[in-house]
Write a structure and sequence with these properties.
By secondary structure, this protein is mainly α. Helix content is about 30%, strand content about 5%. The protein has a two-stranded antiparallel sheet. α1 packs across α2. The two termini are about 35 Å apart.
């Protein structure tokens, strides 16, 4: 199987932290870059395992979905649902845009 080289450096960690809305100090950036490299190397070892005789499976527990009838139950009022919202507009949660006009994720 072909190995994919992934560049993990402070810039990668900064970008990932920004996407996760995390604020990291310089020490954390260095630590996380090293830890993430170690994780990727460890997970990459799975490519060395001979799994040709293992039958593909989507889950291993044997459990199946248990379905129930939908039943109408009391729910939150609009006021109660919105009472802890940071910003509300026209009876809706107002959040920062995450897509630009072309429907692509914002950068920066």
């Amino acid at each position: 199987m072909k190995q994919t080289k992934i560049k993990i450096d402070k810039e990668t960690i900064k970008k990932t932290a920004r996407l996760a809305n995390l604020t990291l100090v310089e020490k954390e950036l260095n630590e996380l870059a090293g830890q993430l490299k170690e994780i990727i190397v460890f997970v990459g070892k799975l490519n060395e395992v001979d799994a040709t005789s293992v039958e593909p499976t989507s889950q291993v527990t044997g459990l199946e979905n248990v379905w129930r009838q939908d039943e109408v139950e009391p729910s939150l009022t609009l006021a109660n649902a919105l009472k802890n919202a940071k910003t509300v507009q026209a009876d809706r949660f107002k959040v920062k845009a995450i897509l630009n006009k072309e429907g692509k994720g914002k950068t920066g």
